[in-house]
Amino acid sequence: MLKRSFRFRLVDLLAVGFALAFIVPLCVLGIHFARHWSRQRQCQETLRHAGVAFWMHAENDPGGYLCSGATDIATDGSIDTYGWVADLQSHLDGLPLIDPANPAVGLSTLNDVLAGDATTWSNNGLPERYSEQPLINLMNRTQPMSNERAQWVAEHVISEGINTNYCASWLLTRQGIKLVTQPPNFSQSVADPAYQNFQGLPSTTGPLKMSVIDRSRISSRTMPLLGCGAPEVGNQGRLMMDIGPLTASSQQRERLGNHLPAGTALSRTVNRGPAFWHSVQGTMLFIKGGDILDTQIDGERGYGTTENCPPPIGPKANHTYLQDTRGWKAVHGTQINILMADGSIYVFDDLNGDGFLNPGFPVPNSANPTLGTDYSDDTVELHPSGMFNGLFVEEIFFNASFGG
Fold first, then answer.
1. Looking at 236-367, which runs of residues are DSSP E strands?
2. Could you tell me the superkingdom of the organism this chain comes from (predicted)?
3. Any bridge partners for residue 164, and if so which?
4. What angle do CA 73, 74, 75 make, to 5 degrees?
5. Cis peptide before 184 (omega within 30 of 0)
6. From CA 227, how far away is CA 217, in angstroms rounded?
């Protein structure tokens, strides 16, 4: 019987090698894109659930508020009771508000909880939010940076879903600034001089109400609520000590594991509000009490965008402002997911590769990021027609007088 012998020739081996060299990278690239889109979709689904929960909270809240404020113990009260994360978890049954694509897996306010003294925050204008809440009671009876405190936080805060790497908009948690009119003729509108800044609840009209959304000239599809959080900077950007183990029944373990180890990256809690580019100092500065807002009001009155406002550049040259959006970052490659007030999810692109999305600050290419700029140039990535980043969502601010 005649037998044939099959042998690979050198040319055959080379052909196979070339084919593998071409196919393997394509397979790896395909796996990479599949993971990317899977995380993108998971993030969007989480934001959709959050949108429904905001609506449910507003329906049940006597004042119609979407939430009770920011999840920040230093400004808005005990995070196990107050803040949008605690509000949403009463409707989400422990669903993790964690974006799997974000390297930061917790809020920077966790460091305040671990190392802080609750009595230092009770004089920020909201004393009732620092009284008999379980977390405040724990902080009052334990030492800062103690294992007892960290374990309680693991079991009763993080395991219960009071943790996130999404960042809230200033509009969601603050809604608007308090204004007064200047004497002698009360024709000039200014940010209330009683406050140094407008990053806390007492100095603002917030949080955002459903009734305000319904009657606002601003389209709800352009009003941002939540987005992928940017890593916090400095010492607050890393978890100070181990937190864990999480309880075995916690859904948080699916995305966080058993522990949050010391050094874990933490995200920003909330966007910091109206700001402008200081052309002399070469950095971003925030609105403060006494700043004149007539130009801003004239630019926004009757319009659903800020396109008629002069560029937000100072010092005090234009008296106009945009929302600081550096609490958000493009963690999905060059994209970021944003939940809007109508429940839709919009995907915005980082066009210049700096990771942040500029709503229109005239930052020059020579800006020094070490001065806290983050925006690398003046590329507009959050166009006014796609996202509202002005100051006024309520028509009442366009009345002639606010009181003196």
1. 273-278, 283-286, 313-314, 322-324, 335-340, 345-349
2. Bacteria
3. 97
4. 95
5. yes
6. 23
Check: CB of residue 346 under 8 Å from CB of residue 381. Answer: no
The β-bridge partners of 314 are: 278
In this prediction the pTM is 0.89
- Assign 146 to helix, strand or coil: coil
DSSP-H helix ranges across 61-83 = 73-76
At how many degrees (to 10) do helices 84-92 and 10-60 cross? 100
Q: What spatial distance separates the first Cα and last Cα of the chain, rounded to whole Å?
A: 111
Amino acid letter, residue 26: L
Instruction: Say which residues have a Cβ less than 8 Å from residue 126's Cβ, sequence separation at least 6.
Output: 76, 77, 201, 202
User: Is 160 strand, coil or helix?
Assistant: coil
Q: Report the distance separating Cα 351 and Cα 353, nearest Å.
A: 6
Beta-ladder partners of 114: none
Q: Which of 247, 244, 248 is nearest to 259 (CA)?
A: 244
Q: Which residue has the tokens 């997911």?
A: 337
Cis peptide before 312 (omega within 30 of 0): no
- Which pLDDT tens digit goes with each residue over 203-227? 999 899 999 999 999 999 999 999 9
Query: Taking the C-alpha atoms of 212, 215, 216 and 222 in order, what is their torsion angle to the nearest 10 degrees?
Result: 90
- Cα angle 18, 24, 26 (rounded to 5 degrees) comes to 110
Select from 90, 103, 80 the least CA-distant residue to 157.
Answer: 80
Q: What is the pLDDT of residue 315?
A: 72
Q: What is the dihedral of CA 62, 84, 326, 159, to 10 degrees?
A: 180
C-alpha to C-alpha distance for 366 and 388, rounded to whole angstroms: 27
Give 95-129 pLDDT, tens digit per residue: 899 999 999 999 999 999 999 999 999 888 999 99
In angstroms, the CA 318 to CA 274 distance is 14
Q: 340 vs 56, 227, 345, 359, 395, CA distance in Å?
A: 15, 9, 6, 16, 20
Tokens 């949050």 correspond to 260
